[in-house]
Amino acid sequence: MKHTGSILIVDDNPDILIAARLLLKQHYQSVKTTDNPFDIASIISKQRESDQPIDVILLDMNFSQDSISGKEGFYWLKKIIEQDANIVVLLMTAYSDIQLAVDAIKAGASDFIAKPWQNEQLLGAVAAAFSHAKDKQRVGKLTRQKQGLNQALNTPSFEFLGQSAAMQQVFNTIEKAAQTDANILITGESGTGKELTAHAIHQASMRSEHTFLSLDMGAVAQNLFESELFGHKKGAFTDAKADRIGKFELAQGGSLFLDELGNLPLEHQAKLLAALQNRQVTPIGGSKTIDIDIRLICATNDNLEQAVVEGRFRQDLLYRINTVEIRLPPLRERSDDIPLLVDYYLNHFSQKYKRDLTIAADDMTSLCQYSWPGNVRELAHSIERAVILSEGENLDVSSVVGNTTSNVNSTNNPIENNNAYDTFDLEALEQRTVRAALTHHQGNVSHAAKALGLTRGAMYRRLEKYGL
Q1: Residues with Cβ < 8 Å from 133, sequence gap 6 or more?
Q2: Which of 48, 93, 166, 291 could cysteine-pair with 97, CB 3.0–4.6 Å?
Q3: Separation CA 270–CA 248 (nearest Å)
Q4: Cα-Cα-Cα-Cα dihedral of 349, 260, 449, 378, to 10°?
Q5: Neighbours of 36 (CB within 10 A)
Q6: pLDDT digits over 54-72, tens only?
Q7: CA neighbor of 266 nearest in space, from 232, 220, 317
Q8: Whole-angstrom distance, CA of residue 449 vs CA of residue 440
């Protein structure tokens, strides 16, 4: 049975071409020949287009115009590598050219065949070259996969937008802090865009070419905390059936984003603090420490200073993680950004769902006056829902969050508007938002909780509280 793969033989001696082709054709499916090295590039391109890419090239060191120096061989070797670095080149040379062949190997050739050759030696060298070619292709594929994965991990779902004075201050802080390796703490209500902020910090930093990894601390089971962050060795505990690399090691050279850090129990806070202080981690069940080089970005909607007072959060860990603190304003404090955000998400979801929708000026005014208790996340999900449900050419904002007119706040601050205080009862707004999220996600509690920026436990507590 013939092996898969394609070989190209390049030699100006027709007898060499015939002999090599007859031998190799018995063992390989595709064997091409040419006596003109200027044909190499076009043959490589044609074979790639026909889904039979060249894997191995047998290349003569000397051609008719220069039969001694081997310069032509070096020239064509360089051209082949430039065109496709995955192709493995075997040089064919006379016994007197052995030193030239050795130099060519240093320049990128895989091996050389002395002419005249023994058939067994040629077949063995070609087989080794094919094995080398497959290894190079696998490495290339893994490299492309890693690059694609890094790009996917480093690219947020949406853009981080804002033109208000409050957001310009946030952007200025990001620009300054990103150029350092200082640990950053992002605070703000659920839905204000903490993960988008973390992405923006990473992309503006010197680590932008490396991995950005995120981990929701509220979603990590307590017994898996160390495994998630530090990794484990096979057999370290009952279900440890294979080695696992922790997030600290996976994010090596890049940025690690720990969301909802306020949910971390005290016992785990101590372990996180030790890792940050020592810049080392030890996998569960392992004895060797691993040096870590990451940029730590944390986020929370909890008041960590109050948590320190209440004994729920370590003060020394708070000092460690908030070298720079970035507070994200709620949407009601940056209402100037609402038209920008509505237009952005309307365009985004119109493209996604292949709709062509516009929004009326009165409807935009209504959305600007709505209090948006769920912040940007609520706005994004609401616009998506409206795009799906709207009929005709105009966005139907009546589907955004129930009846928006009952939630209009002329001052954009329900606490300061005494006349509308009963309309803006925070519990009523929260209940309505939770109900809307459940309806939107067809009763899926996990998806609704994620949309609201809540842990499943926090979501269940609200369901019980409001009898939903």
Answers
A1: 5, 55, 56, 86, 87, 88
A2: 93
A3: 16
A4: -40
A5: 9
A6: 999 998 877 655 455 557 7
A7: 317
A8: 12
Tell me the pLDDT tens digit for each residue of 3-26: 888 999 998 888 889 999 999 999
Least confident of 12-16, 346-350, 438-442: 438-442
Distance separating alpha carbons of residues 80 and 84, to the nearest angstrom: 6
**Radius of gyration for the alpha carbons in the chain, expressed in angstroms and rounded:** 32
Distance from the Cα of residue 280 to its chain's centroid: 24
**Phi and psi torsions of 220, nearest 5°:** -90, 125
Contact 83, 41 (CB under 8 A): yes
Count the Cβ atoms, other than its own, within 10 Å of residue 316: 11
Amino acid 371 reads S
Q: Is the dihedral angle over the CA atoms 219, 196, 281, 251 positive or is it negative?
A: positive
| pLDDT score at 150 | 56
Q: What is the pTM of this model?
A: 0.58
Judge contact between 356 and 350, C-beta under 8 A: yes
Tell whether the model's pLDDT for residue 75 goes beyond 60.
yes
Backbone dihedral angles phi then psi of residue 125, each to the nearest 5 degrees:
-65, -40
First to last CA, the chain: 67
Q: What distance in Å separates the CA atoms of residue 350 and residue 202, rounded to the nearest whole number?
A: 29
Token pair listed for 386? 């409206």
The pair of three-digit structure tokens given for residue 385, joined into one six-digit string: 């829902």
Q: Is 406 left (phi over 0), alpha (psi -120 to 50) or beta?
A: alpha
Q: Which amino acid is at 110?
A: S
Assigned token pair, 142:
């893994």
State the residue for tokens 């077949």.
Answer: 123
Backbone angles phi, psi at 228, to 5 degrees: -65, -45
Cα 156 to Cα 154: distance, rounded to the nearest angstrom: 6
User: Residue 47's closest CA among 60, 25, 29?
Assistant: 29
